[in-house]
Design brief:
The chain is an alpha/beta fold. Helices cover about 55% and strands about 15% of the residues. The model has no long low-confidence stretch (mean pLDDT about 85).
């Protein structure tokens, strides 16, 4: 079972999200919090696989709570679930170590898929958020593309292949199956890629993969 901590200051939202997640037979909401401080405390008490956090909450906002959970509970993946997709929120969440960013206005199936993805070690962004991150704004997109290609040039061909599959949203077991490798080897490749690209997590690596052209427009890893 994927054990989930849900944090939102609105009881109705918590009830609705819990009902949606209950539709996934492999997902269990083990704790619910009404503010960010309570979310951190409950995460420490329950050690969930996934902490699903709203952004705007009293006492401690979701972004600060996410950073604290990522820093103190490495076994818990963090995903943001929010109404807001402003650049500053997305940038801070991903920079703070969150590996998922979901919108409350998204499809319920998207929510379940997102929880499963981050629990499995993959990254998951709402399509609307992903387009913001990938496209960027204005002429900086071309500059970032050139910068990303220069960054991935230091990787070996196999590391670039792994990075493309990370960018396509595959988990370590899925990458292992695709490349006919053992999961431990894939984990080592992913760690090496993160270190060499100097990024904190798989979401940031996925952004580099997209900008460098390692992921096709349909979300599949681009062919070499």
């Amino acid at each position: 079972m994927i054990r989930v901590l849900l944090a939102d200051d609105e009881a109705m939202i918590r009830a609705g999200v819990s009902a949606i997640l209950a539709a996934g037979p492999d997902i269990e909401v083990v704790a619910q919090a009404a503010d960010g401080r309570e979310a951190v405390d409950l995460a420490r008490a329950h050690r969930p696989d996934v902490a699903l956090l709203d952004i705007r909450m009293p006492r401690l906002d979701g972004l600060a709570a996410a950073e604290e959970i990522v820093r103190t509970l490495p076994g818990t993946a963090v995903a943001m679930l929010t109404t807001f997709s402003e650049d500053a929120y997305v940038a801070r969440a991903l920079g703070g170590g969150a590996t998922g960013f979901l919108l409350k206005s998204g499809d319920p199936h998207e929510l379940i898929a997102g929880v499963r993805a981050v629990a499995g070690g993959a990254a998951f962004l709402s399509p609307r958020v992903a387009r913001q991150v990938i496209d960027g704004y204005g002429p900086r997109r071309l500059v970032r593309g050139a910068e990303a290609r220069a960054r991935v040039a230091v990787l070996t061909p196999r590391e670039r292949e792994v990075l493309g599959l990370v960018g396509a949203g595959l988990s370590n077991p899925e990458i292992a199956a695709r490349l006919h490798l053992v999961e431990g080897t894939v984990k080592a490749y992913v760690s090496a890629v993160l270190d060499r690209l100097e990024v904190k997590n798989r979401v940031q690596a996925a952004v580099v993969a997209y900008e460098a052209g390692l992921v096709a427009d349909d979300g599949e890893a681009a062919s070499a």
